[in-house]
Amino acid sequence: MIPFFKRQPIFPYYHIISDEKLPHVKHLYKYKSIQSFKKDIEVLSKYYEPIDIKNVLLTYSERLIIPENSFLLSFDDGLKEVYDIVFPILREKNIKAIFFINPNFIDNENYLLRHKLSFIVAKLEGCNDMKIKKKIGDLLSIKDNDIYKIRKKILTFREEDKPFINEICEILEIDFLKENIYLTKSQIKEIIDAGFFIGAHTMSHPRLTLLSLEKQKEEII
User: Fold this and answer.
1) What's the pLDDT tens digit per position in 82-106?
2) What CA–CA distance (Å, rounded) separates 97 from 191?
3) Entry pTM
4) Residue 113, SS3?
5) Angle, CA of 111, 112 and 116, to the nearest 5°
6) What does the alpha-carbon distance between residue 192 and residue 107 come to, in Å, rounded to a whole number?
7) Beta strand 97-101 pairing with 197-200
């Protein structure tokens, strides 16, 4: 598809890059290995010129056109791998990117709901204690304790299901605040000082369509 898109700017985005099976995202989406990401950068750099977010902002304020054959990378959710893995690779290649973060999770002071749910499912799948699985199955009114049904139920939880989530965490002895998965203030400062950009991604990454207009404004502004 590269030749087809070659004469226009493109904006590839990622969430995370890692060679590890990360419990907080493994049940949410697939992600690229370090080598695969480096290959992406190699291909992009061959056919396109990297642009800085400053160039993009100028196109709006000065009514300029974003150059053809250009690309700008972005990464969602502020996970620590963007500092540990992505940031060093891009800095070495002199390619800038935007890291979209949720301020509520900086310094691991809170945990994104869907990351919680993936982590819970991963912990449950690694549990060999049938009594624990039965206890969670009973809590969720899944009589046959079918792990597939339990997994499916947990992954559909919403904010209003927090009592269930908290109880399951107690059963599995999960303490999310001990799981350091997000960027810290000092890491964010280092990223900014290196010429990269931090973007807004709402305060806590809720499902905006489920919120009132006022709550949506609070999250975005």
Assistant:
1) 999 999 999 999 999 999 999 999 9
2) 10
3) 0.88
4) helix
5) 75
6) 16
7) parallel
